[in-house]
């Protein structure tokens, strides 16, 4: 029998005769379309779509999905169009095929951009119809099975992509068999020597441990029978890459990995799961801390089971999974169980609801990502398999990736909660926002109306939702603040040329925008604020295209610094200017306006480019803290640090950071303090000089940047 005949036989086992005929028509259509095309291995190309369709038949996918699998490459590799497929097989099939087709006709700057955009398109289609990813996973699985005919470079790239993205997606959707095979095949091609050595070692171990496994199986069956529990007990072997991962993470040799075999107990109902657990804990002692209840708290991919690890005979640890037959079906088929076991039972509905929520979160990060590569980064982050389960103040369970912080939790609750969070309580104790959450934590987020995301959060959040929402907020806020700064800088430049602010009329602006090829005035102002355009150059260009006239200046041309400009105005870290210091501004590309003190040593080294320097002055009504660096030389005596900290607090200043270096009988303390202005700083330093142990005190203005 040919592969095509076997496929027809397989679909006939569960599809209606009319649908089987449609599959036959698609098979003939695909054969004609790919006629004369061959794979790298030398086989006729049609063998690949047939193999993909055959991978899907055990999942009982419907006729539209099977036809789309047979035609998934015709748009890419032949002259057939999406419209022709729609006309022949219907619009749903055409949309599935289109979602699977790469964007080969669009030129990208790099291979990474092209790959990222392909994922972006595929996941958009997947959000509309999950069958797209099921077909794509089957396509990737067959490609991985036949990867040996590719070049070494392409083999490594495809295997890496499979391990990083496709295998985790299969795991996230609960497609256990596909996940394990993709994972092992990726491991085989990325680490061929390790794969070969482990495969050989596993065969030897399989023979050596057969007798032990048999005894354990018999003992488990006997104990369950004594407790009148009807159960199907199976032995299972861990897949190769999971064994290798355990060796890596725990620094073990293969001989030290004792639990390469596990056991599965399938019972009729949920109550029997817990009765069976008690029976097995009576047979072999459980290992503390190794019990997980995924029935009460299912995994994000819908997986439910009880996991326990026991001390078996000869001191061998035994991993046992206990679940119902229905749970086992979901554990094997995942989201595809909708087609494989059509039933109105709640677990299936819950699973598809969770899958839909995950896809919607992907769509949100997709819409907010700056580019496709950034989105692919979000996707990889989102595919971490390990999870922690935490509780909201109302007792709702929330699943987050391992390593998630209080900020991740806040964004998972709601975007507005994340954007306004200022602190967190974990188990009723105040903790920093960067605190990693653990299983069972009760988490409460404290918000403030005027709070906003901190760019530093990006260094420790792990969920794609938090990362994309923070970047979206910062990108939007930065643009808005840059527009406001750009407007002030342009006003200053126009004034210095003897024009009233905004002397250029609407017509002048329109001609200017058309000349430089920019869509809006805001873009030009943002570019000025971010240092991508010079305010003086734009002012002169506006003068040239507008009406010229001798207008008197109406402002001094000095930009006032209010301290509330946000990210568009930055205070230099090298000299840390504070109100009262003589200051000067410099425009830096991509950063906006950077304010330095007049005597900043770093500034003197690179003072060139007249148009980039701006006259700036402090606003009279500044009311916010500024950071300043202070160095103290103190005698090495007990309690001196406490005295210094108390003096700073009494002077109404706050310590932002402190570190020290020993210098013989003395210690050099480096403080970063928060002060309002130079007068406030003088008061703080006066208080510190009163401490007998303080030998010398000075402000530091030459810090490394």
Tags for this model:
705 residues; alpha+beta; Hypothetical protein af1432; Beta Polymerase, domain 2; 4 domains; five-stranded mixed β-sheet; 27 helices; 19 strands
What does this structure look like?
The chain is an alpha+beta fold and 705 residues long. The protein has four domains: 188 residues, Orthogonal Bundle (Hypothetical protein af1432); 149 residues, Beta Polymerase, domain 2 (2-Layer Sandwich); 145 residues, no CATH class; 74 residues, Alpha-Beta Plaits, CATH 3.30.70.260. The strands form five sheets. The protein has a five-stranded mixed sheet with strand order 1-2-5-4-3. Strands 11-15-13-14-12 form a five-stranded mixed sheet, covered by helices on one side. A hairpin with a 5-residue loop joins strand 4 and strand 5. The termini are far apart. About 3% of the residues have low confidence.
CATH architecture of the largest domain: Orthogonal Bundle
**Helix/strand structural class:** alpha+beta
Strand percentage: 15-25%
Number of strands: 19
- Biggest β-sheet strands, sense, barrel: 5 strands, mixed
What is the total domain count?
Answer: 4
| Rg calculated over all Cα atoms | 33 Å
Per the CATH scheme, the topology name of the largest domain is: Hypothetical protein af1432
Distance between the termini: 72 Å
Described by the principal axes of the CA atoms, the overall outline is globular
Give the C-level CATH assignment of the largest domain. Answer: Mainly Alpha
Share in helix:
40-55%
The count of helical stretches stands at 27
Summed over residues and divided by their number, the pLDDT gives a mean of 80
Residue ranges: pLDDT <50 for 5 or more in a row? 103-108, 343-348, 548-556
CATH homologous superfamily annotation of the largest domain: Hypothetical protein af1432
